[in-house]
TrEMBL record:
Top-rank taxon: Bacteria
Protein name: Diguanylate cyclase (GGDEF) domain
Molecular function GO terms recorded: catalytic activity
Biological process per Gene Ontology, one example term: phosphorelay signal transduction system
Full-sequence portion shown in this chain: 290 to 573 of 573
Record bears the keyword Phosphoprotein: yes
Organism: Marinomonas fungiae
Residue stretches making up the EAL domain: 24-278
Keywords, alphabetical: Phosphoprotein
Residues that span the membrane, as ranges: none
């Protein structure tokens, strides 16, 4: 019996494997057309200054609005985009879109008097795009953006990659773009490697803020102390409760982001609920 069962399992496995391969290829083919069909969208989530509660900027997240599949979240297609290297074109689309939107907001609102940054996620695979630096610089220039107000977020897997990564990060840093290390603490990069890279900001992963096992929040406190003593600015992600907010404030985290403040939303929604009342402060 067990032999039979084993055989069946193999059959199921091959069947699933083919079905999955087919679905994957179909998804990949549709994703290839997504830019041309104008199906990609950016959503923006506010970041607030932890001391004043004022809007400090936004982080842009990509979504894919597909007629047949509905609205797909980044986790549903970014891994595939990375494997297939479609991320190179998609990544450029994200940069261009974010710069254009930022320029539009600069014209509509009085952002000059505040430090309003726009954060964009960059995949480690985009280091393979050797034209990325020039592309970004051209977008910054044509949209008349102050490079310091653009923040690029890289995950720790970027640190493992080649000299290409260090080279590109140094070039970006030289023109004033801010560099952030995303999901800090959950990767496996060694702390001694960190200073080789020109990061300005450490984004503390939400698992540290939300971990109920971190009794007395010793781990979170140690990470914050570490980051600040090395001169990094800090952003805490995944703030969902008042308690988490207060804790991060006590630990001198610089910026906060999470559902407690707001969810990711369209550019229009952000305008309505945040940018038209730039003086909207959270009680901190
Ligand atoms: P990330 O950059 O670390 O983004 C944080 C994720 O947490 C986002 O999920 C965000 O919507 C979600 N989030 C925000 N506030 C809260 C909260 O209070 N609680 C919880 N539980 N979650 C919160 P999302 O939009 O699904 O993005 C997932 C990941 O996909 C991102 O992680 C980023 O690594 C990647 N990604 C998103 N947009 C892009 C993009 O344009 N390009 C690239 N290369 N990657 C992207
Ligand atoms: Mg991010
Ligand atoms: Mg993150
Ligand atoms: Mg992430």
């Amino acid at each position: 019996r067990s032999k039979e069962l084993g055989k069946n399992q193999v059959q199921y496995y091959t069947h699933d494997f083919h079905a999955n391969m087919q679905q994957r290829m179909q998804l990949e083919n549709e994703l290839k057309l997504a830019i041309k069909r104008d199906e990609l969208r950016l959503f923006y989530q506010p970041q607030v200054d932890a001391t004043t509660g004022a809007l400090a900027g936004v982080e842009a997240f990509i979504c894919w609005q597909n007629e047949r599949r509905g609205l797909l979240a980044p986790d549903d297609f970014i891994p595939l985009a990375e494997e297939s290297l479609l991320i190179i074109d998609i990544g450029r689309w994200v940069i261009n879109e974010a710069c254009q939107q930022f320029s539009t907001w600069n014209k509509l609102y009085d952002l000059k008097n505040m430090t309003f940054t726009i954060a964009v996620n960059i995949s480690a695979k985009q280091f393979k795009d050797h034209g990325l630096f020039d592309y970004l610089r051209a977008c910054i220039k044509s949209n008349e953006i102050d490079a310091q107000l653009i923040e690029l977020e890289f995950t720790e897997s970027s640190l493992e990659s080649s000299l290409d990564a260090i080279d590109m990060l140094n070039k970006l840093s030289d023109i004033g773009v801010k560099l952030a290390l995303d999901d800090f603490g959950v990767g496996y990069s060694s702390l001694s490697q960190l200073k080789k890279f020109p990061f300005d900001v450490l984004k503390i992963d939400k698992s540290f803020v939300q971990d109920p096992r971190d009794n007395g929040n010793g781990l979170l406190a140690a990470i914050c102390a570490f980051a600040h003593s090395l001169g990094y600015e800090t952003v805490a992600e995944g703030i969902e409760t008042e308690e988490q907010k207060l804790l991060c404030q006590t630990l001198n985290v610089n910026r906060l982001r999470g559902y407690l403040f707001d969810k990711p939303m369209t550019a229009k929604e952000l305008q309505k609920s945040w940018l038209t009342h730039l003086l909207k402060y959270f009680t901190v």
